[in-house]
Amino acid sequence: MRGITIKAIHALCAAALLLPGAATASSQGARIVNTPHNLSVSGGGGAHNVKATEEVRICVFCHTPHHAASEGPLWSRKSNLSIYVPYASTTIKANPQQPKGPSRLCLSCHDGAVAIGVLNGDFTVSSLGKIPGDTNPALNANLGTDLSTSHPVSMTYGLSGELNDKGTLANKGISLSEDTYVECTSCHDPHNNQYGNFLVRDNSTEHDLLCRDCHNKTDWANADNTHRTGGARYSSTVSAQVGADGCRNCHRPHSAERGVHLLKQPTSLSGEESNCLGSCHSGASYNTTTGIDIATQISRTYSHKIQIYSGIHKEDETLPVTSDKKHVQCVDCHNPHRSGYQGSPLGDPNPAVTPASTAPYVNGPLRGVRGVDVNGNALGGDGSARYEYEVCFRCHQGTSASSFKTASLSRPVRAFSTYDEGQRFATGNPSYHPVAYDTVGRTGRSLLSSLQNSQFRIYCSDCHAPHGSEERYILQAQNVDTFPSAATSYPLCFKCHDQLYLLDPMNVPHSNSAAMHQSHVRDHSAPCSACHDPHGVPSSLSANTTNGAHLVNFDTRYTGDAPVYNAPARSCTLAGTCHTSGGTRTY
Mean pLDDT across the stretch 109-130? Predict the structure, then answer.
């Protein structure tokens, strides 16, 4: 009698689902009979066309009118006893638990542990086996028991920041189990496939619509947000595709190649940078005329070697970064949800997207990155860097800064030596380049005329190429630091300083300073860096206005130990390979 009753009732269910007028023509897939969840002989479809060869009843695979299991409404499936590996990250606050409620019901098929045709009490209703998997993550319905690569379920909504108010969800078709928990059924309706993938929202034109229904990321709606819009670098066709995919450009809700942050990327065990470089930021996918091939830049001889630090970065890591956590990844300098193209490139008066950036304030690409101030303190509020150097100071400030130099390079050995850039750029120093603080009125003739008698700051990236360079110290241009130097020019220094004034033999010297530079650099092959420290001379190491002015911080590889500069007397006392006879020279 039990079998007859089930058959009779399911026959009536199937007939009702097929009645004319029960659904409009535009809602094909809105009724389970027209979906891949119709596993009977009349069903199938979808990517894998799964259907029984003998069972005509539709609802029986999940429901029964009598002797139902307690796990769900009139539940006919075999009890789900699986233990799962939930999603996890260092910053998640919602604390996903073992799947429960509707999620555990869905997983009774979608974890692939039990054959689809096996019901409660090990009653076999069909010869259908376990749900099929697929090498294409977008088509993989078999999630397995490791859910660490899928959007978390059975978690409390609203505990994390940057989420829309819970009260806005119901009108969008999103339901929370017990008005609290995100479950599979928050995004999927198992009986309705009118939008594909059993989604509760039509995302045919905005592929990340369901993501944004819940997630409200800061600055994501900005007009110049390149990860949302595609920005000015792409063709209009590619930009439209990037804009349509939105969150889905980088994230995959199920079977993500990298579980943490649900990133899709070509290399499953690599760090976050593989998602950036493999998906978009490479020569193959950039417009070669207007784009920037970051992958090629990173592979240059001198660069921030992001490839060797997989899995170390944490969103809430202590700043400045300590030596035991040494790393650098794309997300140390760029916030993928907040970055834009405003003001890029840095300092360009005619940027691709207005307004132009004003030195040293961050521009679009650096927007929303946590920073460190000149005193070594992580910034308050949301932690966002205000100035470009505060991004660099995440690593290059504090007691661990020396750990972030490239060990293989033979570097200048300064008379006043530290790798803590907070000390080198400090306003109390006798001299410093204007990175953390403005210049005061400079009248020196060595500066280009446009920079004389002005107050300004410069960017770190005015001198350094943060992605990569063929010049040592990832410099933007050549600046040889070996003595004797074979260079005839120092293009990096001469971005701001007047080469004619300093080196041109036909230029009438206007001062002893010009004559001194011509003698040292032009006539005796001394590089600029033999005498000058390009960052600053730290008073914290006892430099003062006598022995630390004019950025004079001798490279002791060439000047010998304990060189002395006397700014008021315009003299220096040193030996080494520069002044082999030693003694004091006056200029």
Answer: 94
For the entire predicted model, the pTM comes to 0.88
Q: Under a CB-based contact definition with an 8 Å cutoff, are residues 52 and 62 in contact?
A: no
Question: CA nearest 58: which of 102, 107, 103, 7?
Answer: 7
- DSSP-based three-state secondary structure for 106: helix
Closest by alpha carbon to 182, among 110, 83, 94, 92?
94
Are 187 and 253 in contact by the 8 Å Cβ rule? The answer is yes
Phi, psi angles (nearest 5°) of residue 242: -60, -45
| Number of DSSP helices (H) and strands (E) in the chain, helices first | 15, 7
pLDDT at position 5 is 42
Cα(357)–Cα(363) distance, rounded to whole angstroms?
Answer: 6
Which amino acid appears at position 504 of this protein? D
As a whole-number percent, the residues of the chain with pLDDT over 90 amount to: 60
CB 137 within 8 A of CB 252: yes
Looking at every residue in the chain, the average pLDDT score rounds to 87
3-class state of residue 497 by DSSP: strand
507 φ, ψ to 5°? -80, 125
Give the whole-angstrom CA distance, residue 29 versus residue 23: 10
Would you say 551 and 533 are in contact if contact means Cβ atoms under 8 Å apart?
yes
CA atoms of 574 and 559, how far apart (whole Å):
6
Tokens of residue 217, six digits: 């990321």
Q: 421 and 433 in contact (C-beta within 8 Å)?
A: no
Q: Is the pLDDT of residue 440 over 70?
A: no
With b for 16 or more beta-carbon neighbours within 10 A and e for fewer, the 53-84 pattern comes to: eebebbbbbbbbbeeebebbeebbbbebebeb
From the list 110, 224, 105, the residue with the least C-alpha distance to 154 is 105
Is the per-residue pLDDT at 517 higher than 70? yes
pLDDT tens across 326-361, in order?
999 999 999 999 998 888 877 777 777 778 887 789
Token representation of residue 420:
């803590």
- Express each pLDDT in 300-316 by its tens digit: 999 998 888 887 888 88
Q: What tokens appear for 325 in the block? A: 């956590």
Cα distance between residue 293 and residue 440, in whole Å: 38
pLDDT at 12 over 80: no
Backbone angles phi, psi at 107, to 5 degrees: -70, -10
